[in-house]
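Discussion board: Methods & Data

I've been asked by a reviewer to show the raw model output for two of the constructs in my manuscript, not just the figures. I'm not sure how much to include, so I'm pasting the format here to get opinions. Each protein appears as its amino acid sequence followed by a line of discrete structure tokens. Is this the kind of thing reviewers expect to see in a supplement, or should I convert it first? Here is construct A:
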Amino acid sequence: MNELFSVKDKVVAITGGTGVLGKEIGSYLATQGAKVVIMGRKAEVGEAIVADIKAKGGEAMFLKTDVMDVKVVEQNLADILAAYGRVDALLNAAGGNMPGATIAPTGTFFDLKPEEFERVLNLNLVGTVIPTQVFLKPMVEQKQGSIVNFSSMAAFRPMTRVCGYAAAKAGISNFTQFMANEVATKFGEGIRVNAIAPGFFLTEQNRALLTNPDGSYTQRGLDVIRQTPFKRFGRPEELDGTIQYLISDASKFVTGTVAVVDGGFNTFAM
């Protein structure tokens, strides 16, 4: 058996684990033998995900979290270490957007609400920095670990409307590269920091923006499909392989990269 991509018995913590993408990734990694920690704000949803994983023979636990609260995240880590004794990977999948941090087609920059822009920046960027800082500590002690941040297509180019979200995701890509150098230089090659940049996947956050109630595409949805050579949205399970690669020994010499999974969206020019 080829163990290069194995995640068996790895303890994997996933912030934003109750979202569409986090749920899929966590459930998949559990089928591969990982011990998955689903972290999120919705306890009922999280417990249901864990119950489903266990029903299929996987190992998982749910922890309610707030990625903006250091004390809460520190307690999350303490609970994980009490249960498993280590943490091998952190997936920073928590994030989101707010209406006031966007600019509608009929609006202008003057409609942007700075307080909501700040909240979106904090949730996505600071909400990645805090768990990284907390979970990095046991990885330093272990001299081994993998951190995968969640960037976005919006990090590569200034998309219309999503002003705050794009700024935050661009920051996450930059932070990923910064941390890759920081941890390797000071703590050794055993700890790697990478990011994944999903293309357009239908989630609860963007569904109304990209599709109509009858399932047809909105104008923005049509624009995305036009820009995507594969001519469709991504399916959540299509992130699984890249995540497994990034937290397995298959990527032992890979750090500071942003892995794009987008059906070609980022290659399209006109």
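Construct B, same format:
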Amino acid sequence: MNYKNFIAGSWEETSDSCANVNPSDISDVLGHAAQSGTAEMDRAIAAAKSAAPDWAAATPQQRFDVLDFIGSEILARREELGQFLSREEGKTLPEGIGEAARAGQIFKFFAGECLRQNGDKLASVRPGVDVEVTRSPIGVVGLITPWNFPIAIPAWKIAPALAYGNAVVLKPAELTPACAWLLADIISRSGLPEGVFNLVFGRGSVIGQHLVDHPDVAAISFTGSVSTGRGIAVACAKGMKKVQLEMGGKNPMVVLDDADLDLAVEACLNGAFYSTGQRCTASSRLIVTEGIHDRFVTALGSAMQALKVGHALEAGMQMGPAVDGRQLDQNLSYVDIAAKEGGKVLGGHRLSLQQEGFYMAPALVTETRNDMCINREEVFGPVASVMRARDYEEALVLANSTQFGLSAGICTGSLKYASHFKANAEAGMVMVNLPTAGVDYHVPFGGTKGSSYGAREQGRYAAEFYTRVKTAYTLP
């Protein structure tokens, strides 16, 4: 299978391509993705610019019909799409199917938003003057998406962009081209006018940067690394573009003495190790108070070691491989650093299974300090660290002692502490007795500090990024 660019309503090959390898079995090559240069990106941007005015003028019903078609087909094919996703990215099959279904739900939600767009009509402070506040599209939007949620994250960027009348150029992650191609194939048959949606494969340093810098692109929505996101922010500021960044996390889960032990273990097991820990919302720092610490560590360690790790498509697997060799090496290096800095490591070694893939045992690092590398830097793998805290007050200080602020959680039976934590955790999303990972599609997603920049994603708050506010005054 060759994964081609989709530009101005047509599929286009390139002279160069890159192999797409299954991380569960590196002998399994799914296909080859186009490798584009700036010329292909220029054509995509030009197509979007040409198509943007007519799409901006489309009726709410026209937009609804397109997004509803996309969402319906994704949901109808969620098992097929989920299987392909798991084969390409490495998350287990139930997780892959769940992600595909989430993408369909997102398109369905924003199909509804096409019919729910509204404004305000106000009385002016001046007699006889009417004031109207409306929203309008921003034009051509560049979307740069990561590999860890290769259908859901493109969906939660594409769907609102189209719903609010914008034209789109999507630059997906190099490691997961098939999912982007499958999504583009569905979009191509939705009745969307040519040029409104465009897909370009290639290296971020080449075509991604060109997309960010191009003068005809009005806004950039990016999900990825902190270093790349900060560079994009600078470039967008120079170009006076709107920018939306989701960049990562080092998310704390506080476990207090009064927590339900089984519930806390399950929440941390899910948050830290499911999806191979390859989630920006993963529970990577477990902050546990003295009274429950030893029991919690023993129980979580046992549950972690019992996780079934293997081929993503094999029935009963609870954790698949890392996405590629580079990510696996990074995971293992962080485990080594943690041990050298004094942490006590359980698991965290490379696994040799029947199929040659990028497998590792999940790792729990105990007896850590807040100044250790494992508690400061995002690993993006199945590695969780544990810190002791004397009490809730110290646990809250430790939870907030990070450059990131995406998600934070607490396990407690106390309404007092739960309420205080929700109000005082320095994070954009707070979970009580739930994993830090796992969010709904109809409410805002995003963080504080170094995790996020710009308007929130998802739900009705997506309008803040994908539209401009216009105020009009009339003297009848």
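Answer (T.O., handling editor elsewhere):
This is acceptable in a supplement if you add a one-line summary per construct. For B, something like: The CA atoms of residues 301 and 364 lie 7 Å apart.
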